[in-house]
Structures are given as structure tokens and as C-alpha cells.
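Page 42, continued from yesterday. The earlier attempt failed because a stray header line got pasted into the input along with the sequence. Redoing it now with the clean sequence only.
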Amino acid sequence: MSEYLHEMDRHIDEFIEKQQDLLAPLNNNQAVSQEIFDLAQNEYDLIARTYHRQFFYSFIMLVVATTECGLREIAQRFGAKRNSTTPLPGPKWDQLKAYVTKLGLLEPNAGQWQPVENLVKVRNCITHCGGNADRSRKPEFLKNFMRQDDELVVDAEQHLLYPKYDFCHRSLSWADNLLWTIQNSGEILYFEEDPHPINPLRQYP
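This time it went through. C-alpha cells are written below.
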């Protein structure tokens, strides 16, 4: 997923550069007024922001969906080992977290949950409100979160969340850290095995 993020971001940058090259002749064309050029430039800027934003939106949704699938698979595996009579949780995040904590795999207030839960709230704003933080169920949370993370901003013109590349990149580490912590906890608790020799906070290239 890290390679996918990097390659797609590179391709989008290349596409935007080509579009900018198409605008350059207009700036030196005496037959084109400054007003028309400025209009074309504004349209180009809008397209550039929209391309990046929509890709980053889709990437955040992919990371959250993959994390939820991972949690459900972990819950299924260790729930069966424990012979739990509790039905497997539904797809909602709160249900998955409650089931995992009930299995004793990770305390509900453990630090690994918070970054991913913040990401889930961003995903929910994208899914249900088209990225408009003011229309989300928890607008104040999102605004406070953005004050703490300058890689998640609001597009001043379109008033939509704009996650930057580094924010999306770090989301992989948050998800990876959570899933590996829970997985390793289950290995020790239910199989009495040593945890996998990995660094859950590994940095993606």
C-alpha cells in the first residue's frame, strides 16, 4: 500500500505538470487577455486540488477498510481459540473494538487505538459528508484534530478536508501498529508463542 500511495501520487503530479505545460503558451499569447488566462489558471488549480484530494480520500478509506477487515479476521481467529459464544462483531468500528477488547487482546484505552480512531472519524466525514467538516457529526473534534496535525487541512476555497501525502503515509503506520500489537498479544495469550519479530512502528519507505 505504501508503494501504491507513492506511485499514484507521482502519476498525479506528472499529470498536473503536463496540464500546467499546456497553460504556459497562453501566458505569452498576446491574443489571450489576462482575465482569460487567470480564469484558465484558476480552473487548472481547482482540477489539481480535486485530483489529489479525491485520491487521498480513497486511500484513507482503503486504509480504514483494510484495518477493519484485519480486526475482524483477528477476532475470528482468537474468538474460535477461546471458544467464545459471543457472535462475531458487525462491520462497525465500535463493534469490532468492543469484541477485540472483550477477548483481552488490547485494553480499550491503549494508545494504539487513538490514531486509528481519529482516522476513522476522518473517513466517516469523507463518506457521509463528502469531506465537509462543518457537516460532520463531530465538527469540533475534526477542527481540534487539524490544529494538532498540519498535514490535515481544510481547502480554503472548497471548505473540504484536504489530507496531505504525509498524513496518508502515516496512516499506514497507525494501522500497522494497531493490528500487529493485537495479533502479537493474541499469539502470547492464546497460543503462548513469542510475538513476531517485527517493529510495529516501522517506517514505510
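Notes: The first strand starts at residue 152 and ends at 154.
Reminder to self: strip header lines before submitting.
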